[in-house]
Write a structure and sequence with these properties.
The protein has 120 residues and is mostly beta strands. 5% of the residues lie in helices and 33% in strands. InterPro entries: PPIase_dom_sf, PPIase_FKBP_dom. Its EC number is 5.2.1.8.
Length: 120
């Protein structure tokens, strides 16, 4: 089992496009668009580095269908293999929309580190 990741403060200007970087490349089953995935993740705000959510805090990974998630995850997780760890930097238009959109993370660029534990 992997340990909870520490997310380094990215700094600089937030990207306008989804940034995908593999921190660890897995060798298990590959996640496909629309798959159901079992993941552990940590999410922080790009500008502040402040954590806003983490499955690790709940002590259990989360399973969900990709099509129910923000676009940054729908586009950023496929191609990952089980056992992998990937960092996604997700601009607002692929996360919770522009500022004033009604979600507490609207208008924010988000950084996620995602561990892929299983593909269903």
């Amino acid at each position: 089992m992997m340990e909870r990741p520490e997310i380094d403060f990215v700094g600089g200007e937030p990207p306008s496009d989804l940034q995908i970087s593999d921190l660890t490349v897995g060798d298990g089953d590959e996640a496909t668009p629309g798959a159901t995935v079992l993941v552990h993740y940590v999410g922080v705000e790009f500008e502040t580095g402040e954590e806003f959510d983490a499955s690790w805090n709940r002590g259990a990974p989360i399973e969900f269908p990709l099509r129910g998630l923000i676009k940054g995850w729908q586009d950023g997780i496929p191609g990952m293999r089980v056992g992998g760890r990937r960092q996604l930097v997700v601009p607002p238009d692929q996360a919770y929309g522009p500022a004033g959109g009604g979600h507490r993370l609207s208008g924010k660029t988000l950084v996620f580190v995602i561990d892929l534990l299983a593909v269903k």
